[in-house]
Amino acid sequence: MTTLIEVKHLSKSYQKKQVIHDISFSINEGEILCLLGPNGAAKSTTINILCGLLNYDQGEIFYRNEKIERNLLYYKKYLGIVPQELALYEDLTAEKNIQFFASLYGLKGEKLKAGIDFALRSVGLLEHRKEKVETFSGGMKRRLNIACAIAHEPELLIMDEPTVGIDPQSRNHILATIRKMRKKGMTILYTTHYMEEVEEISTRIIIMDHGKIIAEGTKEWLKDRKNEKEIVIQLADNSALSLKEIYQIEGIMNVQLEENELKITVIKGVENLDSIIAKLIQQNKKIQNIVIEADNLETVFLDLTGRSLRDVR
Ligand SMILES: Nc1ncnc2c1ncn2[C@@H]1O[C@H](COP(=O)(O)OP(=O)(O)OP(=O)(O)O)[C@@H](O)[C@H]1O
Ligand SMILES: [Mg+2]
């Protein structure tokens, strides 16, 4: 496994407010690393530091084992940057926008032409190449924003919430483009607060909150770290229900009755759902509904922070 970027003990303050607290992480060649975190987690600040757009107070950043402070220019040519805010010229055509950004990376002549074609094709805008950006939908603009970052075929594509506020079709298109870019050999750093996207494309995840890394791993690993599960059973009525009987079942950690809702926390893998149902039937209870908590990143985040990712925005 080759490490492309290594960040060591990075800290950053705006005026007096510290927003990044001593974070360390690496980006490995060929991965889609998702930086997942709510509003204000410092995702953009971290990314902008990596892109050389912001200074930082403490820490070190290495690209292929080379410290990048003094070699920023040399390093930037390996990056493709998709900023959180659209960076496009509305009165230029799609093609001219890509041409502008690709030229900044030194593309000329045939290489430039091929790069523009590659970028337009990758994001599905080939037939709109001659149209001005001002006529584009939000989703098309987002896709063009990506095209501007890939014409020079960067080693590392850094994307800051590239799917915010767009229709599902454009979003799917963007996620498919990212997978294609990975297949072409690009490494991708992708920030988002949508865990559905992370579930779909990540090969590894870093969860950030309040400028700190609170968990790191593959989605399977993160989901597996919880060793308990919650079962919620809706009863027709709760009269004379003995919770003691349910506590006696193996694997039961906690039982709580709120009105007609029975919440049971069990050890993962020892769910014993059949025994729970049998005990309820023995007590003549009518079961109206059973919900078993799904393993997803939302519950992982909730577990780690006590807050829901959906609530924060
Ligand atoms: N230029 C700035 N000056 C002062 N504070 C800032 C500045 N930019 C960001 N911050 C603060 O730094 C913290 C991290 O912000 P940042 O934009 O990096 O978060 P984020 O994870 O990208 O959030 P979002 O999901 O909203 O894009 C926030 O508390 C924010 O208010
Ligand atoms: Mg941001």
TrEMBL record:
Residue ranges occupied by any ABC transporter domain in the UniProt entry: 5-235
Pfam families cross-referenced by the UniProt entry: ABC_tran (PF00005)
Protein's UniProt keywords contain Transferase: no
Keyword ATP-binding in annotation: yes
Keyword annotations: ATP-binding, Nucleotide-binding
Gene3D superfamilies: P-loop containing nucleotide triphosphate hydrolases
Gene Ontology molecular-function annotations: ATP binding; ATP hydrolysis activity
SUPFAM superfamilies: P-loop containing nucleoside triphosphate hydrolases
Protein name from the UniProt record: Export ABC transporter ATP-binding protein
Species in which this protein is naturally found: Enterococcus termitis
